[in-house]
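Field: sequence (string)
Field: structure_tokens (string)

Example rows 1 and 2, in order.
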Amino acid sequence: MANNDELKGKVNEAKGKVTDDESTELKGKIQQGFGKAKDKAKEAADDVAGKINKKIDKEKED
């Protein structure tokens, strides 16, 4: 699922293509990349938190 930054980036990229404005198109591509990077960072953080929670739960059982 696309986040807000990715959606804004797609809009800006399309706007740049329609208006033949390379700067706006590039800005859109950068926004999309930033949004994807944020998603990856969130996934990594969620993964680490899940592993920590499993470790804590396992230690509680012992």
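Row 2 begins here:
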Amino acid sequence: MMIELISAQSALFWLGLGGLLLIAEMLGTAGYLLWSGIAALCVSLLAWILPIGWPIQGILFALLTVISAILWRIWLKQRKLSKEAENLNQKSHQLMGVKAVLLSDTESGFSRVKLADGSWRVYSDTPLHAGDKVEVVTIDGITLHVIAITSAGGNTQKDD
């Protein structure tokens, strides 16, 4: 009885399968079922409009799944993430190039700077003094590597 109903209403079968695959995708399969779900919905539309048999519908479903997955893969490779998007949740990487003032003299190369509402540990290869202006050049874990910002004459600028 159920088989005859499904055979008579193939568009509803593909619509239901597509819906189930998309629901399963929302549960967290990271894109694996998205393209199969969309392919099933496309086959549902074609089966509703055109009188095509089950074998052709199955082939269409398989082809549309593979083609859509390949096109998605190509699109992802061509898409370039912006620098901001790459560092969206990495606060320390957003600090590259930021200028700040040292809070204390460096001891064994280490000191601190205040950035926004926090204090960051910094490291410099050269001895620096409190009040020296520095620029963040690299990040190592939670330590910012800085260099002194110098004036045109080559002297380190200081806030007096």
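free_text_note (row 2): DSSP finds six helices and five strands in the chain.
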